[in-house]
Amino acid sequence: MELQKHPKKSNSTLAELLMRVDDAHSDVSGNNTPADNRVVDVGFGSTSLPLSNPFVLSFTNLSYSVKVRKKWGKKVENSKVLLNNISGAAREESLKGSITLNGETLESKLLRVISAYVMQDDLLFPMLTVEETLMFSAEFRLPRSLSKKKKKARVQALIDQLGLRKAAQTVIGDEGHRGVSGGERRRVSIGTDIIHDPIVLFLDEPTSGLDSTSAFMVVKVLQRIAQSGSIVIMSIHQPSYRIMNLLDRLIFLSRGNTVYNGSPSSLPRFFAEFGHPIPENENKTEFALDLIRELEENSHGGTKALVEFNKQWQARRKPRTIITRKPNFSLKEAIIASISRGKLVSGATNESSLPDFANPFWIEIIVIAKRSITNSKRMPELFAIRLGAVLITGFILATMFWQLDDSPKGIQERLGFFAFAMSTTFYTCAEAIPVFLQEKYIFMRETAYNAYRRSSYVLAQSLISIPSLIILSITFAGTTFFSVGLAGGSAGFFFFFLTILASFWAGSSFVTFLSGIVPHVMLGFTIVVAILAYFLLFSGFFISKNRIPLYWLWFHYISLVKYPYEGVLRNEFDDPNKCFVRGVQMFDGSPLGTASEAMKLKLLESMSGVLGVNISGSTCVTTGKDLLVQQGISDISKWDCLWIIVGWGFFFRVLFYFTLLFGSKNKRR
């Protein structure tokens, strides 16, 4: 599309523009911060490299249908046609159109590298500023070979190009935090995807939800992007008259069929020849769309007549259509020329060396972690609520189970404390569900076009979670261990702390894995609560392993609560020299527990005579090892239990990676 009504047409790429801006900034202030709020002039300069439009993106006879979900009571699964034999083309400086590039088949791998896609929803981190959002995008999409200074200059120039200078230091915001306006958010979304100056830019309804002024400003920005040497293709509903004047080519679709393919200026002639002339003072686009809708709803044949008329009209105009024009360069030559002009900033020197990712693995991890930490630091209430929940729970447990003794009743109370404490660590991890679901679509957008590796995201999220888990573990262990009167001294406390930490790690990993599967927060919470309840049921507290039916025994071994529960029991009762039930204490909890001390001693004498073993009031009858056997505790050591918990955490992180690898891919065929 040739963009119209602009007196000055720039042949400079965004990269060339940025180099000039960088020089200007250095001249004025000696640093990377703009000296004033000047708007970048895109209408200057020339280059010795080829200036003609080297790219022609075309598609021929495209058809696409999707399966419609079955409704209750229906056995047949219907399909809905979205595209039906669609053809079209787009050149540089286009705002409409769409799968060959310069006549050559465009492979999906190359498409991801040279293009960008802006989703309809503004998927941004709410507590980052506009400048930070674009800077993090630059860190992802621009190569490590580009200096920090040039990256900052690129971001500053892009802010000016997008008209975001006044909002540069304002946070994006969300429902609970005031931030930039809707139009500014949309321009930031566009900026995050064009930071590397892609050759092809796709946009899904970029003006959706915006008022007319904001929508016009967004499309105006897209016009400048197209003038810098990119192919810009977007879907749009109900474009205003002013927006129409910025477009060169339109494709109208009706139930998957093309009903118009041409320039906005040809609309009156097209519909006049069809027998529905557009009134002189009528908005051309609104008239066309209203007519199409009227034909869809009221006409017996729908838009079939309009589809056939468009085919005939295109056939008559075919010698002059853009589809018949041959590109000036081959695909390889065009990409090399664009890279030479500073476009498609990826660290490549030619088309064959285009990397899949702009940065190495470890750089991606650092940038992802830094961005998450920056966003989280500005919402301290999230961690504070979780810390408060752990602290309150620990305080309640400490006061409820204050300084338990070693009596049979105290032993039962210790078992109850351990079961509740271990399960609590897992339940408090449920907060990870909304955290990832908020980032899920941001992640899908960024990884769809190779901003970073999925493995980098998983590792970064795992690493940044550890400090908070350590704080939570110290808080809970410090609040409960000494208050309850648990055994083992400092060594026992250290193991108890490690078990709590490992439980938080495994629970967080498990919930993170589930968050990669479930689509909604409430559904996620429901599943997590249910599964953790089952884990507690089969942990060995309510019913020992020896009494669990064989057909449910497998659930006992996969219970996440089992291993921390058994680990802390061994830490508490594994001392062979410690006695927990002596002589007359064996009657506690039975009907004989209310008998006098003398009566209990006489009963012990009688039992000694029968058993042939001397049992006095101080004889040890139950050791810690006996208690472990009674509880059906496995023979594995407490340290093995600890490592198994840690292993579960890594296992669920790996599963999380595979859910991202396969679950976040575009399922269209």
UniProtKB/TrEMBL annotation:
Q: Which residues cross the membrane?
A: 383-404, 416-437, 458-487, 493-514, 521-543, 642-663
Which intervals hold domain ABC transporter? 49-280
Q: How does it sit in the membrane?
A: Multi-pass membrane protein
State the compartments where it is located: Membrane
Name a single GO cellular component: membrane
Checking Pfam families in the record gives:
ABC2_membrane, ABC2_membrane_7, ABC_tran
Record protein name field: ABC transporter domain-containing protein
Organism in which the protein naturally occurs: Gossypium gossypioides
